[in-house]
Amino acid sequence: MVSEATIESILQEKRLFDPPAEFSQQAHIKSQAEYEQLFERAKADPEKFWAELAEQELDWFQPWDTVLDWQPPFAQWFVNGKINISYNCLDRHLTTWRRNKAALIWEGEPGDSRTLTYAQLHREVCQAANVLKQLGVKKGDVVGIYMPMIPEAAIAMLACARIGAPHTVVFGGFSAEALRDRLVDGKAKLVITADGGWRKDAIVPLKEQVDKAIANEAAPSVENVLVVRRTAQEIAMQSGRDHWWHECLKQASADCPAEPMDSEDMLFILYTSGSTGKPKGVVHTTGGYNLYTHITTKWVFDLRDTDVYWCTADVGWITGHSYIVYGPLSNGATTLMYEGAPRPSNPGCFWDVIEKYGVTVFYTAPTAIRAFIKMGDQLPKARNLSSLRLLGTVGEPINPESWVWYQQVIGGGRCPVVDTWWQTETGGHMITPLPGAVPTKPGSATRPFPGILADVVDLEGNAVEDNQGGYLAVRYPWPGMMRTVFGDPDRFRRTYWEHIPPKDGKYVYFAGDGARKDKEGYFWIMGRVDDVINVAGHRLGTMEIESALVSHPAVAEAAVVGKPDEVKGSDVVAFVTLEGTYTPSDDLIKELKKHVSQEIGAIARPGEIRFSDALPKTRSGKIMRRLLRSLAAGEEVTGDTSTLEDMGVLDKLRQGG
Ligand code: PRX
User: Fold this and answer.
1) For residue 271, what are the β-bridge partners?
2) Handedness of CA 15, 16, 19, 21 (dihedral sign)
3) Could you read off the pLDDT of 400-428 as tens digits, one per residue?
4) 111: alpha, beta or left, given left = phi > 0 and alpha = psi -120 to 50?
């Protein structure tokens, strides 16, 4: 959700930043004319455009016979092509000088670090792949990955991809319950985890959470658990089921040819929140995803061999999949992975990492930028950040003032800023500047990537006029698009492709975001239009949090809304009615917050819980979230309240229940 103040500042924004001439001269895409040309070429014949790139940029075991088979809303790309993304990320670099180039630089906690060359990474991936095979994992078997930010997380993903076992990475901050739901839905056969992970000076007991998640046959598909030693505290190991990664790898052969996969074989499932029901398993497949993450990484981050590229996301999210692991490695780049996070004991840690490794391309989230602004300029100014040449942001709308601060204070005024709009579902960047070609406007994700036919539409799918608000939509398939919701193709159809009813057989992808397009064709993203809240760049479904609350015995009914927050973008506010014998108290608030953390994870913990006797409902019984959002934000409740069943409820809520 974007606050009124942000919308106001976005609407007033007039500044334009041209790509610096020195940057453009050396960039992959060097001018606006070149961008327009690419865009027009891709629009005129998308299949030809993508096929040419797939041939130039990737190594195929067998060519495809059809570029796109589009049976709306189901797409198949590079039909009958054979490819392996682990081969494209590793093997093909080994026959070049990149063999001994740093593939992965890891800065761990507390004070650990490690660098793996392409040859070393390849070796460990092959060994891990052989271990998976020995533990009975076969092509098509799903593997759960629940890891801290350590090289083994990337190694595990690539090992799965190598043998054709789709992975489902679950963010290490999710609770045992959330992990279980995902393992059960994906029918994971094996889980790769660590004894623990470091988060903000404390240990997260990952293995213990896995034990809880799969105890008592709660996730019956899981046969084995592979455990990386990271924090070295005592943990329970169940004989026959649990295996130490380092012991298994020591004995494993480093010879494991990459399995030729069909382009459309599933590469991974990644769960994400929607406005209804439980999180959905977004399915990505091999060939199209490989191409799309490769080419967006190359053009948007303008990567070249001398770069040290750092994306601060966690591998548990799509950003980590596409832009820490697959995109950069497919390009033969050096990708940096950081286990730490800014915290009171080390607020300048990001700038230390940039200085230590000479990071050249830096990709982070607006929420981090806003937090840094609050900490003051002295932290970054005390470090040498002159290695930086390009900055990126992702995850939520960035307000123009934060954009300008980022460009000036972190980028020293010389680095282009790429504000990249995309989603778990889209696989890679969709609306983003190409940094050497597209002039930027602070707060705008600018223009669509070539081949992406994005538009702002009404609910009938008609384009709205310039500067009119509408729904962000995409009118044609692209190689990185999700293929389905795991196990629920109907939900895929309904959620994304029928929200705007198809007309004359033409389907439109509905992103769930509001947007407006200006006269120059620049997109300004306004945030979610559904019941999804974006908290510090993390996507949370209000319904998931409501279900978590209602699963507590004290809660009769709950409604969750977002409220604007200066740093996090939004914060979670829960309105709760209690079961008969319970009474509101500070202790109960604490307990309910803890309960949500246990059910979902700390990221979903409500910032505020308000008790009330009743929730505002329409005469047909629907909770009036619009009213609750206004109340949570402390705004006057305006608009139509005529359908409100009991006006008295409103007064009570205003008074705090
Ligand atoms: O609301 C948009 C917001 O994040 C949503 C997608 O969330 P998720 O699937 O978790 O992926 C996040 C990382 C790609 C979008 O629907 N969003 C993402 N990037 C931007 C953004 N909103 C505005 N500007 C962005 N650059």
Assistant:
1) 281
2) negative
3) 999 999 999 999 999 999 999 999 999 99
4) left
Q: Which residue has the tokens 């799309």?
A: 292
Tell me, what amino acid is at 612?
S
The CB-based long-range contact list for 378-384 (8 Å cut-off, 24+ gap) reads 379/347, 379/348, 379/351, 380/348, 380/351, 380/409, 380/410, 381/409, 382/348, 382/351, 383/348, 383/351, 383/352, 383/354, 383/355, 384/355
pLDDT tens-digit series, residues 602-646:
999 999 999 988 999 888 888 888 899 999 998 877 666 777 777
For residue 310, give the H/E element and its range. strand 308-311
- For residue 446, give the nearest of 518, 366, 537 by alpha carbon: 518
Question: In 3-state terms, what secondary structure has residue 195?
Answer: coil
Q: Is the CB of 395 under 6 A from ligand 1?
A: yes
DSSP 100: G
SS3 at position 355: helix
d(CA 376, CA 373) in angstroms, rounded, equals: 5
According to DSSP, residue 18 is labeled: P
Tokens of residue 521, six digits: 């064709």
Contact 554, 587 (CB under 8 A): no
Helix (H) or strand (E) holding 338: strand 334-338
Helix, strand, coil percent values for the chain (each to nearest 5):
35, 25, 40
Q: Which two tokens stand for residue 56?
A: 């130039």
3-state secondary structure 48-89: HHHHHHHHHHCCCCECCCEEEEEECCEEEEEECCEECHHHHH
CB of residue 396 inside a 6 A radius of ligand 1: yes
**In ligand 1, which atom is closest to the CA atom of 532?**
1
Res. 321: pLDDT tops 70: yes
Residue 279 DSSP label: P
Asked if the bond preceding 435 is cis, omega within 30° of 0, the reply is no
DSSP string, 229-271: -SS-------TTTEEEHHHHHHHS-S--PPPPEETTSEEEEEE
Structure tokens belonging to residue 329: 């490695």
d(CA 206, CA 598): 13
How far apart (Å, rounded) are the C-alpha atoms in residues 103 and 328?
9
How far apart are the CA of 399 and the centre of ligand 1, in A?
A: 14
445 touches ligand 1 (CB under 6 Å):
yes
Ranges 210-214, 320-324, 414-418, 646-650: which has the least confidence: 646-650
Q: How far is CA 422 from the centre of its chain?
A: 9
Query: Which residues lie across from 421 on neighbouring strands?
Result: 431
Closest residue (by CA) to atom 22 of ligand 1? 396
Model pTM? Answer: 0.96
Cβ neighbourhood burial of 607 (10 Å; 0-12, 13-18, 19+): middle
Contacts of 495 (CB under 8 A, 6+ apart): 274, 280, 485, 510
CA of 421, closest atom in ligand 1: 26
Q: Strand, coil or helix: what is 653?
A: helix
Query: What ligand 1 atom has the least distance to the C-alpha of 432?
Result: 26
Mean pLDDT for all residues in the chain: 95
Contact 560, 138 (CB under 8 A): no
Q: How far apart are CA 523 and CA 515, in angstroms?
A: 7
Question: Running DSSP on this structure, what letter comes out for residue 449?
Answer: P
Query: What is the signed CA dihedral for 508, 514, 519, 523, rounded to 10 degrees?
Result: -80
308-311 and 334-338 beta bridge pairing: parallel
Dist. CA 587 → ligand 1 center (Å)? 35
Q: Are 366 and 393 in contact (CB under 8 A)?
A: yes
